[in-house]
Amino acid sequence: MRAIQYSQIGQFPELVELPEPDCPRDGAVLAVRATGVCRSDWHAWRGHDPVPLPMVPGHEFAGEIVRVGPLVRGFRVGDRVTAPFVNGCGGCRECLAGDAQVCPNQTQPGFTHPGSFAEQVVVRQADFNLVRLPDQVDYVTAAALGCRFATSFHALTRQARLQAGEWLLVIGCGGVGLSAVMIGAALGAQVIAVDPSPAARDRAGALGADHTLPSADPELIAELSDGGVQVSLDALGSSATASAGVRSLRRRGRHVQVGLMLDSHADAGLPWGPVVARELQVLGSHGMAASDYPELLQLIVDGRLDPSVLVGKVVELEQAGAELAAMDGPAQTAGLVVARVS
């Protein structure tokens, strides 16, 4: 089968021929129809997130089942499916509680084993991790859900418990941030979006942001939101943006950290005085369990959410490596990149 693979950190990801993967007894093999090109894959390729080499990147995918293991009961060949980027083991305390996104035994295509920049990809524990796609959701849209849209949905609905009528601050309007803007608006929140890029701010406004700002100024945000936002989401990941998100909260507000805090920011402090005095909550968010996908998919079927508008570019599998490497520089397209796989 054709696949995009790199054998060394930072080596240009090349199109290669690989054997078709074996199907686990409890797993499934998917014919990949579309796969997202995500910055998390870029982090692995650049060595920020160590992975075994050689590696086929890709963890945002949708496709059709071509093989199932003998232990799989809920899915069959021909089913149209997707899966979270975190695949839970299905048997630990966290998985049994519905929190597979923090499974201590998790696997991740593109990180722990070959991913979806290929004609086929393996999903382990298929009955637990696969998600059946409604007929109304095409493969490119399903791939766009990937880790960015699903992560934002989990962050806002389960972690921050965003309610209609509340104020939401989104810092950073890349794939995660724009997803959060769209989801927040669909849930009935009033949204303030922050990004230094005028193009990103324009995009956020078109997706439902009520106000757009070039920087997160807590005083201005408090003025716009009548005393501070109920929920802040840092989609960028830095000591400055996390601190600004916390400082922009009103009393008893909730800050959710989605952007990865890397390098010198990994142990960044927070303004603990306001956290204690105002009884603020600081929450992490990591992906979304397969069990939570039906709620998200129903919002898409009902027309309340349309992730396809976030897709800025669709390329063929052969171009996916170049698109991944292009993340070394400024974004070349206003939206997510999805590779179509025949």
- Which class do the helix and strand fractions yield? alpha/beta
Label the overall shape. Answer: globular
Total separate domains:
2
Count all strands and give the number.
15
Terminal CA distance reads 11 Å
Task: Name the poorly predicted regions.
Answer: none
Average pLDDT metric: 94
- Report the biggest beta sheet as strand number plus sense, adding barrel if it closes: 7 strands, mixed
Order of helices and strands: EEEHEEHEHEHEHEHEHEHEHEHEHE
What is the number of helices? 11
CATH homologous superfamily of the largest domain - what is it? Medium-chain alcohol dehydrogenases, catalytic domain
Q: Determine the fraction of residues in helical runs and give it as a percent range.
A: 25-40%
CATH architecture name of the largest domain: Alpha-Beta Complex
Provide the CATH topology of the largest domain. Quinone Oxidoreductase, Chain A, domain 1
Output the CATH class name of the largest domain. Alpha Beta
Our estimate of the beta-strand percent is: 15-25%
Integer-rounded radius of gyration: 20 Å
Organism: Propionicimonas paludicola
Cofactor: Zn(2+)
InterPro entries: ADH-like_C, ADH-like_N, ADH_Zn_CS, ER, GroES-like_sf, NAD(P)-bd_dom_sf, Zn_alcohol_dh
Family: Belongs to the zinc-containing alcohol dehydrogenase family.
